[in-house]
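Bench log. Compound arrived from synthesis this morning; before running ITC I wanted a structural hypothesis for how iron/sulfur cluster sits in the protein. Inputs:
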Amino acid sequence: MNIKVVVPVSGGKDSQTCLKLALQSYDKSEVLGLFCDTQFEHPLTYAHIDWMRDFYGVKIEIVCAGSVQEKILGLTNPRFPSGTARFCTDMLKIIPSKLFYKELAEKQGGFEVWLGMRSDESHERKVRYREKINTEVYAPNDVQNHYPKYLEKLGVMFRLPVLDMSTAQIFEILNGEYNPLYSAGFERVGCFPCLASGDKWKRKAFIHDETGRKHWAIVKDIELQIGKSVFTSKKEAQRGNKNNDDLFSGCLFCAI
Ligand code: SF4
């Protein structure tokens, strides 16, 4: 049977809600999850992807175009990603998902992509999606300008089913069945931590548990190699262990 809906899943609550909603409208054989592995996720996130596959009885494809570390060190001018330069998202999520959609559409014809974007998540998203509604479908390049026009010609259209939902509504729909990282106080799920996020969130992840400490060791090694700090605030970069209450800018595209 042809796939009617592809849901890019991150292991986070919004994309999981999209998956759950898609399964209320389509047979599970018509729905496909897509997970872009950055090799810098928390084991709980990988486990949650496996859990969703079993619990919902749906196929979830995994694509991996390398690791965040590799993408940072491979740059001509190696640097950490930031709110305005999320090159790793492009390399590890946008490009592989584009290719995935293209190949699937060429093989079986068009389908919808259900994106877990919510206006509520950030001012950036509110502005970006202010003219969109959750009941409409849009050309991929109309939703995210990184996507090429040829996808629309192949019959790939994007839908934003949770666009207007609040965080409370999302948690209500998931009914306690979400990534345990939320219960540990993390507001978003993606790389652990997203290196483009605010210092507060990076620090929280680095001291959280064994995975955080392991990822901190990887990041320290990158810092040594490139001569730059992952922290954006001077105080945090110098002292390393002070909390900083800056806002989490988040990873716009990684919430797929
Ligand atoms: S979550 Fe952050 S670090 Fe990971 S790929 Fe996205 S921007 Fe890069």
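What the model suggests: The first strand starts at residue 5 and ends at 8. Residues 38, 68, 81, 86, 88-89, 92, 190-191, 194-196, 251, 254 surround iron/sulfur cluster (CB under 6 Å).
ITC booked for Thursday regardless.
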